[in-house]
Amino acid sequence: MCLTRTAKLSSVSHPDRAQKSSYMGSIDLPQASSFKGGSETFLRDVLESILKTYLRKNPMANTVWELVQSVDNEKVSYDHFFFRTFKVDGYGIDSLSSFFMDYGYTIGGRLDFPKKHIHVLWLSPPELHIPGDGHHLGNGPLPRIVIAELLVDELSPESQEIIRKYLKPEGGKQAILSSTLGSLIWEKPTSNDFNQLAKESEYGAWALFHGYTLNHLAFAVHRLKHRFSDIKCVEEYFKEKGFKLNEDGGDVLKVSEDGLLLQVSLMSEKHEVEFADRVTETITASYIEFVQRLVLPEFKDVPGDEIKEFHRREGLEQASAYHIMESTRFTAQD
């Protein structure tokens, strides 16, 4: 039975320290303003509103969330929240990152995906912990914030024209409000514009329709208890339950090169939606991910009950992230 972590997962090689430099690049990274505003309570309330909107709009994600909470009376804990944006007219990474950095988040690093024309930035949370009796945000540290942006200027003139037609200057200032409400800042796209854009960038088409709604959340497996404390058991459980798992790249379990970052994601659910021209189609929505961060070799002797987040593998993994993003693939297996 899948009850404890397997020895195979905990026996890993020492990470390459030089790899850390690959998390950072030469692109212009957003900077926090001098404002350090508001209370911890407000930050948690914003995150919880974003989460509630995501669960309301995605029934499958809500079902998974409830399963994680119910199995062995788990208390949910999150590794990261992931958003998609457009790098055009103020709608890119800055439109979301500035808010979180004002409330204590700091730049962790970034990844580049040239073939997809995408940059990804991730932010580390402030040293705040959710109370043990927290509601939707569960317990443990606040989630990392991961924000992707589509490099619109690198797309074809046709795709750029479609995107710019909807995204008016200055609208990105309402990004956080849009995410908490689950409402588009711009007008709903037509089916023709959506499908035309999807031919070049499925990411772009997804973001044009869903906007700043949370793209996915990732549970922190290493902070869960009982059955879900082992990502192999997570994989086994959801296979048994009949969920479609992301096998992009050949394997359901995505393992970082150093063996310390383990990821599994479910394929996105699909929704029947109506476009601005009254055409109805079925498109991908959001999904769920599970992340297990193993303890760094230099901390292997730290007692289990004293392990903190800084003792574990940090950051993201280029290859794994590439495949995880395919969880919203329009041509997902049926």
UniProtKB/TrEMBL annotation:
Q: Which UniProt keywords apply?
A: Dioxygenase, Iron, Oxidoreductase
* Its EC number(s): 1.13.11.93
**Ranges annotated as spanning the membrane:** none
InterPro entries linked: HGLS
Xref: Pfam families = HGLS
| The organism's place on the tree of life at top rank | Eukaryota
Please give one Gene Ontology molecular function term for this protein.
Answer: dioxygenase activity
Similarity comment: family membership: Belongs to the 2-oxoadipate dioxygenase/decarboxylase family.
Name of the protein in its database record:
2-oxoadipate dioxygenase/decarboxylase
